[in-house]
Amino acid sequence: MLRNQSVGGMSAFLIVCFTILLILYPKDVLEASQNGLKVWSESVLPALLPFFITAELLIAFGVVSFVGVLLEPFMRPLFNVPGQGGFVWAMGLASGFPAGAKLTVELRKKKQLTKEEAERLICFTNSSSPLFIFGAVAVGFFHDATLGLLLAASHYSANTCVGIFMRFYKRSAPPSQAASSKTNLKMAFHALLEEQQRNKKPFGQILGDAVVSSIHTLFMIGGFIVLFSVLYRILLVTGAIHFFSLIPSFFLSLFSLAEVLAFPWLSGFFEITIGSKLISDLTDVPLIEKVVITSFVLGFSGFSVQAQVASLLANTNIRFLPYFIARWIHGILAAVFSLLFWDVLYVRRWDHPVITTPEGEDVLTLIWMKTIEWFSQHGVKVTILSLFLYIFLLHRHRSPSK
């Protein structure tokens, strides 16, 4: 009881301090909010919305159950989760944070996962998307598309290892369904039809619910992006972040890494985009050291993403602690893998000619630059159209049927 009161009192004190700082630094708060909103509207929403809606529809029409039966012999022995986890894993890899958490919650609500299976699954199905690693980090920040292959290989290899490690987490807990080593298309179609029979909603309602749910989740994500952008700016203008950077500076010195990496590394603990950008901007640091720290930042994913996941888990009995521990493991393993893969995936690649256009531009770099340019030009339009669609569908959903 006393402990809860102390935590509550400390939380209230910190919130009051944060509110006072918002009043003292209105210009910085406004700029940080605008930057966070720009990132959300130009990149996050247009990139994630199609994946979220598609995933909702695939779950509603039983396609995930179909895939789950086929993947059961693979997912159960390797990760100790049902076959449906394969779909969540694939969608998480393709669309990035926090798609894996959202889909895991959806499957848990439909009782296709036990609490323990959901806690295992969520630990390795939340990762950075290829668009972010190749487009934003490798090309946008480091201006080197070849570096994207190294970062991606390190990131996804470490993520897979986390999933294998987590298979031992509460492995004695009963599974959601009996494990089966024999599957066929007939069993998979049977599972698909069963799911469709349970969901008797008309197609229009299913589509509307998918859009409303997806945009609602993206609103929450946008709120966290803006909040942590403001929090980071407050820590920066008050100088508090330089004080906290003494901690990572100590660990960098232990491994003989450049201590100038401490500040951008700490920034990456709050938001991966800011941290990765600051790391890439350093000029007097060897590239391999910057890659190692960037790999850790991508694996840890930042408190901003972790807060998004925690919010999604709030209405379930899925615990956040296993996910938080897994992020540390992911970050450390990704940093180690980047060292192991450095020579094979980056240094030796420079021994071979790079494919270029007639104008002499690197083709891979050009593709990613065009992708980023498209999101910059059309992302806001997609966001505005999505908002109008959300308001329309939400109004229809809440209006009494005649």
UniProtKB/TrEMBL annotation:
Domain Nucleoside transporter/FeoB GTPase Gate per the UniProt entry, residue ranges: 43-142
InterPro entries: Gate_dom (IPR011642), Spore_IM_YlbJ (IPR014226)
TM helices/strands, residue ranges: 6-26, 47-71, 83-101, 121-142, 148-169, 206-228, 234-255, 291-313, 320-342, 374-394
Keywords: Membrane, Transmembrane, Transmembrane helix
Superkingdom to which the source organism belongs: Bacteria
Signal peptide: none
Keyword Membrane part of the UniProt annotation: yes
NCBIfam families linked: spore_ylbJ
Full protein name: Sporulation integral membrane protein YlbJ
Native organism: Aliibacillus thermotolerans
Lineage: Bacteria, Bacillati, Bacillota, Bacilli, Bacillales
Annotated gene: ylbJ
